[in-house]
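TICKET: design request
STATUS: open
ATTACHED STRUCTURE:
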């Protein structure tokens, strides 16, 4: 599926880890056959993932042999892990050897520091189109999963390859966790294109990261907004990285300041800065902003990826054709996933979306056809009869005060958490002035730092 015959024949290097260990395309192909021989049927397997050779080899082997994996982080909270096992009944685990003692089961195979354990459970019936299960980006406390088809994964790999012009000389740095849709997209799309994927399983602030980046001559670096906040603080844009060709961003909106900083850096050093947009439900990438427009269309997600279409609809479901008019953004294309699963019984379901995905994002399209996200449908409150966009309030506060903040709440009261205690009164006065709300409609609270998950996304339900 992902392993194309030409790259297997050439015995090209597929993966390299931070310790210098590597796996070739041929070795991956041979391992996939060996892996399947331990199981000998199509079934459900939980992969406790990390960016290591053991983890990626099991993932590739499962896809190549039609075993269906659910990718979870090795650090997934114990209670959630047990809930998922109870609801989905996986027949096997593929996990680091260090996790063996945490489960009751029979270890039947080991390779690359990972172990295959038979759980004794009977897996549910699986749809023939089902290829992969991923947690939704906000599902840290929920058994809700996204169901992918084989066509979804191939379409993502194929079209991302077109966007980034992937070839076998590329060396892609995989530093986002692979259970996260964008991190997995890096692995699958560059593997499909015959490139070498550089596996990093640590922090950007570690000296080993920078040594790995430079010594392995990475040609593309992929990050989320939080990644770019760290890179900016580490003065990344002052570094000499002659091998790096592309810097790409996704996973949420980048602040205009950071967007400009990295777009300017790319222009100055002859590299490309490419912003992208996607969701787990759309197999990661759904839109991209071509590098040529990075400085003239700051903050835009660009246009749909190849084979896809983006458009806006109003509250009546009618398509919005007028420029600069907000509407819900809808995506259609072969990478739109099958639907959600909430229990094992849902794994037998077929395609519930039929290639169309309402994104839940409010966007506008400018006169040149470029899209800009302006909010989320679910990120609105109705306070004293006034509809208030939480994302918009966050942006107004940050633009006025430069203070990190998050807005949550209910239709009874909005809560504004800010990281500067001295600014609380000024921010409260500002919100009243900008929104016309009564002071009883909201509360400004101090928080030492913005809560984020391990891929840098803001956690709004932290209370």
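STATUS: resolved
RESOLUTION: sequence designed for all positions
ATTACHED SEQUENCE:
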């Amino acid at each position: 599926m992902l392993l194309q015959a030409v790259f297997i024949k050439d015995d090209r290097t597929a993966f390299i880890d931070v310790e210098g260990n590597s796996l070739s395309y041929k070795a991956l192909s041979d391992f996939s056959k060996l892996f399947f021989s331990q199981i000998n049927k199509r079934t459900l397997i939980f992969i406790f993932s990390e960016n290591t050779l053991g983890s990626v080899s099991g993932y590739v082997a499962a896809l190549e042999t039609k075993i269906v994996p659910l990718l979870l982080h090795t650090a997934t909270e114990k209670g959630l892990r047990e809930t998922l096992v109870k609801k989905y009944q996986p027949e096997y685990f593929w996990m680091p050897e260090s996790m063996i003692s945490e489960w009751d089961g029979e270890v039947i195979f080991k390779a690359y520091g990972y172990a295959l354990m038979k759980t004794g459970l009977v897996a549910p019936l699986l749809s023939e189109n089902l290829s992969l299960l991923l947690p939704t980006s906000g599902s840290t406390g929920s058994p809700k999963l996204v169901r992918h088809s084989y066509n979804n994964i191939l379409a993502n790999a194929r079209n991302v390859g077109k966007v980034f012009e992937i070839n076998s000389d590329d060396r892609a740095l995989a530093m986002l966790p692979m259970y996260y849709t964008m991190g997995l997209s890096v692995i699958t799309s560059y593997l499909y294109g015959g490139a070498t994927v550089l596996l990093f399983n640590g922090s950007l602030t570690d000296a080993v990261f920078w040594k790995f980046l430079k010594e392995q001559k990475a040609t593309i670096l992929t990050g989320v907004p939080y990644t770019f906040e760290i890179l900016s603080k580490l003065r990344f844009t002052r570094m000499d990285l002659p091998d790096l060709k592309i810097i790409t961003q996704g996973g949420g909106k980048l602040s205009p300041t950071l967007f400009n900083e990295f777009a300017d850096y790319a222009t100055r050093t002859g590299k490309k800065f490419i912003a992208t947009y996607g969701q787990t439900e759309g197999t990661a990438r759904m839109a991209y902003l071509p590098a040529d427009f990075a400085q003239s269309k700051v903050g835009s997600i660009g246009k749909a990826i190849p084979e896809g279409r983006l458009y806006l609809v109003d509250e009546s479901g009618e398509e919005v054709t007028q420029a600069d008019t907000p509407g819900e953004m809808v995506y259609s294309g072969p990478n739109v996933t099958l639907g959600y699963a909430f229990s094992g019984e849902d794994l037998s379901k077929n395609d519930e979306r039929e290639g169309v995905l309402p994104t839940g994002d409010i966007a506008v399209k400018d006169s040149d056809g470029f899209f800009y996200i302006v909010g989320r449908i679910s990120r609105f409150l109705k306070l004293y009869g006034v509809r208030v966009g939480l994302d918009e309030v966050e942006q107004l506060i940050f633009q006025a005060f430069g203070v990190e903040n998050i807005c949550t709440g209910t239709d009874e009261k909005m809560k504004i958490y800010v990281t500067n205690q001295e600014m609380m009164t000024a921010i409260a006065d500002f919100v009243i002035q900008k929104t016309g709300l009564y002071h009883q409609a909201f509360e400004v609270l101090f928080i030492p730092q913005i809560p984020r998950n391990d891929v840098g996304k803001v956690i709004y339900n932290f209370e």
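CLOSING REMARK: Residues 1-378 form a domain with the Rossmann fold fold (CATH 3.40.50.12780). The chain has a mean pLDDT of 94.
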